[in-house]
Amino acid sequence: MSKLIASAAIRGAHTLVKQAEELLEKTTAEKGRDFAFEFPDTAFYLPMIYAMTAFPVKTLGDMKVALGLAKELLHDEPEEHLWKPYLGEALDSGMATLFAEEILLALKYINGLEPAKDPETGYVYNGFITDTIQRNLGIQLVDGTMPGFAAIIGAAPNDDVAVSIVRELQEKNILTFLSGNVNGNSVTKQLLRKGVELGWDTRIVPLGPDTEHTLYALDWAIRASLIFGGKKPGEYKEHLKYQKDRVFAFAVVLGELNNIIWTTGAGAINMGFPAIADTDVPVIHPTGVCIYEEVDKELDPGKIVQRAIEQRGLKISVEKPPIPVAYGPAFEGERIRKEDMFIEFGGQRTPSFEWVRMKELNEIEDNKVIIVGDGWKEKYEKGGQMPLAIVIDAAGRKMQKDFESVIERKIHHNINEAQGLWHMGQRDLNWIRISSNAKKEGITLEHIGVVMTTMTHHRFKSIVDKVQVTIYTDEKDVLAIQEEARKAYKDRDQRLGSLTDEAVDIFYSCLLCQSFAPSHVCV
Length: 523
Fold this sequence. Notes:
The chain is an alpha/beta fold. The protein has 2 domains: 3-312, 3-Layer(aba) Sandwich (Rossmann fold), CATH 3.40.50; 334-496, Bifunctional carbon monoxide dehydrogenase/acetyl-coa synthase(codh/acs), Chain M, domain 3, CATH 3.30.1650. 41% of the residues lie in helices and 14% in strands. The protein is built from 16 helices and 14 strands. The strands form 3 sheets. It has a 6-stranded parallel beta sheet, with helices on both faces. Strand 4 (249-254), helix 10 and strand 5 (275-277) form a beta-alpha-beta unit. The longest helix is centred in the first third of the chain and has 29 residues, at 3-31.
């Protein structure tokens, strides 16, 4: 292992333990050693310390005990002229760092300094990640919708590069945490300057302005093995193995590295999370602690995301419709406000509905998009409001009438996953908006149909062989066909309403979640 990396990790650990100790003494003097604390909305005390040691930190007095555990992991800096393997000392220092950072951030919460607020922009960072968010995102980790998460530390060479890196992660459905800074600049500030929407809805979550805030992402990861993995507090080997094998996380370090970044990185490497830097740093290529390389570099910012994914061992398959905007679940939470809107359909402003019909294979043409309406192009180019009917005809040898409503419910996701498109509601109570930016990128009504054909094939490839989409834009056509759709909705509701438990004699079990939660089974 590089002596430079080991020395930096050890120095950084000593620095953070000292900072935590000083703030702990100050806070204890003010509030007393019995002062109780817990992070917001968690049942796991200080999660990293609890998972690794089984010690529940409940008070300032407990923090002193936990800090003592961190001190036991500290080592002296390597001697100048003595060579030896430094990996063990560096990894110990990394774990001491995670303990110290967790205590330090807890103390900052007690002193009203967390979640951090940027003095220039007024932006309030996320801070600690709650158990509720952990559980809500669990299913996405289980089914592969969210294949992993990235922690970006520092600042990109310029704002455009920052946007490019984050957009690529979004398109690959990877949750992105932001922390750290380079001389006061950070990816968070760069994205804010470019008007990028941040938060859980867009899967871009700024944790805090300092490198230490990366600990919140690692706390989030370690709770996965407590909540989903069935690992008990104190089973540190099992926790670390679970992280390496099942939590696909990695760090992207942008800008120059300092002792704090190196030592926090050493803590992450303990968990099997590798790091890749955009600067010329020493590398650690022997595998073992991580699946592949522990530390690597990629000087081309256009290749750094793909290199990080390969380094972590992630296999990502993304189906992107041939449309001129980015596409993926990361854009589902995007909001299009009235001032950002180019055109809207439905929302009780114009007639609008969506309907999936089962057809025979010889009745439709696969991947065909038909738009019906007088002068629809001119009406669309004006913007504002328009009537809209989206009729999806699906055919397949295994297609059944009961599948119509299932395919129909996915229209919401199909549209929302396109950047600059927004969808709410269902059936004849839907509401769709297209943003001005999406229009500038070249989005047309035909692209809505393209999204439907592509994603219906992708999501339902085992039952759907052909998909054809017809879009109606004249109000008289929309209203006429809407009546047919409403009859179909009513028939479905009556059919479903007659279904009772007593009428069902076949039940199904699902073990899908065992890829992430080995002790779970659904019936």
